[in-house]
Amino acid sequence: MSAPPLPLDSTCPRCGGGFACGAATGACDCFGLRLSDALRAELAARWPGRCLCPRCLRELSTPSPGAPQA
Questions:
Q1: DSSP assignment letter at 29
Q2: Residue 56 and residue 47: Cα distance in Å, rounded?
Q3: Which Pfam families does the protein's record reference (predicted)?
Q4: Cα dist. 25→42, 43, 45, 63, 68 in Å?
């Protein structure tokens, strides 16, 4: 039996910080975040094929104070 793949060390294209992307292992921090379809499309267009760190994803998934709520 082979070991599961290890998380990939990556650099966030938004903040430049390092993080371990666990998407390939099913242990990615972003799986627990709720991102709107519009935000997912925006992120995919801005950073195609790249993962953002959990901190940036949390910041982006939280509405700014005073922002209209959907």
A1: G
A2: 13
A3: Cys_rich_CWC (PF14375)
A4: 25, 21, 24, 29, 36
What is the rounded CA–CA span in Å between residue 67 and residue 39? 14
17 in Cβ contact with 58 (< 8 Å): no
C-alpha 9/C-alpha 22 separation (Å) is 9
Q: Please report where in the chains the tokens 């998407």 appear, as a residue.
A: 23
Locate the domains of the chain by residue range: 8-61
Question: What is the residue type of 64?
Answer: S
Q: What is the pLDDT along the chain (70 residues), one digit of tens a residue?
A: 555 555 577 899 999 999 888 777 777 777 788 888 999 899 999 999 888 998 999 999 887 665 554 4
